[in-house]
Write a structure and sequence with these properties.
Elements lengths: L2 H11 L10 H12 L2 H8 L3 H8 L8 H14 L2 H15 L1 E12 L9 E9 L1 H12 L4 H17 L11 E13 L1
Helix pairs in contact: 2-5, 3-4, 6-7, 7-8
């Protein structure tokens, strides 16, 4: 499970202008159009070509849970690519991104500070440059650990150091025990 990557995808998906197909046959027909054939869909979903054809003809309507999850994921990855690109571009240039998290956040700072690692509920608006770093890393195939590190650096800059206005030698912010994480464009 990719908590940060999935959170970024969910934020982008909320900007879709039309709902993605919901039924399995409709999703299968959409994938056949996108991938230009039943053979490519079968390879992508790891099922037989005949099974794809039966979904397209409405002979099968309810997939197994594992196939339903793969089908839904593949459709959402391909749904409205221009809307997806526009939402990312807008967040990375003008809008920024809001992170709402409840997690144990701690940081490395001088001895004697009172801000130890503790559960915090933060809702922070990150400026566009941080959103751009997150989306660029996600597009480059960064793993969840790298996305978490970029988010922690953004929180360090914006929340803990108030964009450089707070004095102090804060070195690193760490996420542990994440209970809730949500991004909003």
């Amino acid at each position: 499970m990719s908590r940060f990557g999935d959170g970024l995808d969910a934020a982008v998906q909320r900007s879709f202008t039309r709902p993605a197909p919901k039924s399995a046959p409709a999703q299968m027909r959409y994938l056949v159009r996108q991938l230009k054939g039943t053979r490519a869909v079968a390879r992508t979903l790891r099922i037989s070509q005949r099974t794809v054809e039966r979904y397209v003809k409405n002979q099968i309507r309810t997939p197994r849970p594992d196939l339903a999850a793969r089908l839904d994921r593949e459709v959402k990855q391909r749904w409205q690519p221009q809307v997806r690109a526009r939402a990312r571009r807008q967040a990375a240039t003008t809008g920024g991104i809001v992170i709402d998290t409840r997690a144990r956040l701690g940081y490395t700072a001088p001895i004697g500070t009172t801000d130890e690692s503790r559960i915090r509920h933060l809702t922070v608006a990150l400026p566009p440059q941080h959103a751009a770093r997150l989306f660029d890393a996600q597009q480059a195939g960064a793993d969840d650990r790298r996305l978490q590190q970029i988010t922690a650096e953004a929180l360090k800059d914006v929340y803990f150091q108030d964009s450089g206005r707070r004095a102090g030698s804060l070195e690193e912010v760490r996420f542990t025990d994440i209970e809730h994480l949500e991004f909003e464009l």
